[in-house]
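#onboarding

Welcome to the new folks! Below is a worked example of what a typical request in this channel looks like: someone posts a single protein sequence, and someone else replies with the predicted structure as tokens. Don't worry about understanding the tokens yet, we'll cover that in week two.

Example request:
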Amino acid sequence: MENPYKRKKDPEASKQLILDTAAEIGATADWHQVTFQAIADKTGLSKGGIIHHFRNKEELLEELVRQSLVELTEWTVEEKRTSGNNIAPIAFLKFVIKKSSDIRYRRTMKVILQAALINEHYKKMWDEWFTAHISGGPVADLNVNSLIIMLVADGLWYADNLGLYGISAEKKEQIVNKLLNLN
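Example response:
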């Protein structure tokens, strides 16, 4: 007979809960404050259960960044599809503006930003993703107008993820309209 008090295990759900909780903590605090104990306290999982999925914090961060880039790819592909805009820098700029109020997106991007700042490996992962999905090759090879659009998108991305300037949606739309005249 099955023990009625035994908790049913769903390893994929537990793993995703750990990743989501790490991203939540990392987005509201410093990545260094993301500890297995903090995750355990917030999820109700044991530290041993967390270690079962991720041997160490570096493995957790690697999976979080990898998963975030997959999610970002899905979002940007959808943006290109729905906007009908094949000019990657413009699609990226519109995507950044559209997603800036999305809590999940902001949390994802903040973790990627922190990871890239603390470890060259994650900076390289971001650069490779960006080259493959946005710039279509080395950023230095973009024409000047596309490069201007990319740098504006980056500036808005950083400002949103760091909570700087409080740029309104209307101002962002004005920026896009100005930049559309460049291409």
